[in-house]
Description:
- With 340 residues, this protein is of the alpha/beta class.
- It folds into two domains: 12-190, 3-Layer(aba) Sandwich (Rossmann fold); 211-336, CBS-domain (Roll).
- It has helices spanning 2-8, 11-39, 42-53, 65-79, 89-92, 119-127, 142-146, 168-188, 192-198, 202-207, 211-214, 230-238, 263-268, 279-282, 296-303, 331-336, and strands spanning 58-62, 84-87, 105-109, 132-136, 149-152, 223-224, 247-251, 257-262, 284-285, 289-290, 312-316, 325-330.
Amino acid sequence: MASAKIRAVKPQAAKSRDLAAARRVLKHATEALDALGESLNGDFSRAIDAILAVEGRVIVSGMGKSGHVARKIAATLASTGTPALFLHPAEASHGDLGMVTRADAVLMLSNSGETAELADIITYVRRLAIPLIGMANNPESKLLQASDVSLLLPKSQEACPMGLAPTTSTTMMLALGDALAVALMERRGFSADQYRDFHPGGSLGKKLIRVGDIMHKEEELPLVAPDARMRDVLIVMTSARFGIAGYAGVVDKKGALLGIITDGDLRRNMAPDLLDKLARDVMTANPKTVSPDILASEALTFMNAKPPKVTYLFVVDPTDESRKPVGFLSVHDILRAGLS
């Protein structure tokens, strides 16, 4: 019967209603976020100060839809340099309050600020003098009255037709949680390297891999002296222990990189006397190099830049005046790391 009713609705009318509902939701959210931005004051900075002052974690809690948002905020904080975990209010009342220590701060979400299930956590943190940051829309609510720092949400209209289902209010909570996380990142000076450490898997981790993470090092480097005979250089270039065929770096007595010898250099110098030539006579001087600190994706772009394109690069620390190679990178290393 329900299916018959759905089929009876004219497609164009249904589409119009769908779009109207979507635009109404987004309009409410946009207006609410604008109001939230305008309402921010010194309490936001005090919340940041309170979190930075603790040695432990941020315990984020909320019930119902606020709880789902709280769980996401905890995850965002943890992945951006602020240790955090989500505490379910009901489980807290049955033993999980033991997760909360005097070294922690508590961030509690409740649109009304009167959610009954939060009472046990509030009582516990007040008794132990644990910093409490409350997020709600009623300054007179039990939550905000008990909080050390109050993050007051503007009054807003929920987007559902009955004005009851948490929609606009949870959007504001989520956005304010993101704002806290980003402000904390900036205060801490949270770096891309630290972000990569927290995201070793997936595309985010791959994008943040640096040359120094995947380059060949030390005994793997195929290095020869400038006065080495090419018959000896060829042994180095084809030695299995380097794992790099057809490539060698030429370094002086101090270890500074003078040039490179590639299979292309061999072809250009192919003659009966090739094996008796010196490395300095065959090498290409002033080769392209990269820093160990740049992203592997940047190194790949550099390899594929204006001709001649290269498939191998020596890695040299630009701050080291000795220009000693510290590593060696091939395009295959980058591809194996999942970048292309």
